[in-house]
Amino acid sequence: RSIIFPILSIPPELTVAIFMACVKEHPQQDPLALSHVCCQWRQIALGTPELW
């Protein structure tokens, strides 16, 4: 799947850093939206209490 979707090959730690930057930059956006992109992002978002 990472061949089709290269974004999925990013390490989870980096994905968390990106999520945190997005939430910081756009606090009015619900972090739940990040968890609706794909299964991997859902697992990462829900496993990152700092987002909530």
UniProtKB/TrEMBL annotation:
Domain of life where this protein originates: Eukaryota
InterPro entries attached to this UniProt entry: F-box-like_dom_sf, F-box_dom
The F-box domain, residue ranges: 7-52
Designated name of the protein: F-box domain-containing protein
